[in-house]
Amino acid sequence: MLKLLSFCGLLGLAACGEMPRLAAPEPAPGPAPAILPLEPLLAQIPAPGSIVAVDPTGLSARAARLRARAAAMRGPVADPATRARLLAHLG
Questions:
Q1: Percentage of the chain surpassing pLDDT 70?
Q2: What percent of the chain has pLDDT above 90?
Q3: Do 48 and 54 contact (CB within 8 A), yes or no?
Q4: pLDDT at position 85, please?
Q5: How far, in Å, CA of 66 to CA of 39, rounded?
Q6: Contact 14/20 with Cβ under 8 angstroms?
Q7: Residue 35 in 3-state DSSP?
Q8: Contacts for 83 with CB less than 8 Å, ≥ 6 apart
Q9: Distance between CA atoms of residues 53 and 60, nearest Å
Q10: pLDDT 10s digits, 2-31
Q11: What residues does each domain of the chain span?
């Protein structure tokens, strides 16, 4: 409760201060940007639910690399000699 009252007191003190005057930024030189119609942009969007392949060859190559990495990780972590030594230590 004391924390809440302290916070409200600090908030009240901050509200008593004067708002700083901020200078407006200078406008960029040159003509104002043109506002273009939205319809041509919306016409480029594919229909909902459709799948668009951007780079199927790159995607296939990446999938093949990931499959190869997964296959390499499926093997045993330790070679048979190290595994036998560890099992002998465990009893």
A1: 95
A2: 20
A3: no
A4: 92
A5: 40
A6: no
A7: coil
A8: 76
A9: 11
A10: 888 898 888 887 777 777 788 888 888 888
A11: 53-91
Token digits of residue 39: 């319809």
Amino acid letter for position 23: A
CA atoms within 13 Å, Cβ hemisphere of 36: 5
Neighbours of 41 (CB within 10 A): 9
AA letter at 2: L
Q: What is the dihedral of CA 76, 80, 85, 89, to 10 degrees?
A: 40
Q: State both tokens at 16.
A: 């008593």
Q: For the beta carbon of residue 37, count every other beta carbon within 10 angstroms.
A: 7
pLDDT band, very low/low/confident/very high, at 38 (cuts 50, 70, 90): very high
Tell me what pLDDT residue 56 has: 67
- Can you read off the two tokens belonging to residue 21? 């005057």
3-state SS string over 33-87?
CCCCCCHHHHHCCCCCCCCCCCCHHHHHHHHHHHHHHHHHHCCCCCCHHHHHHHH
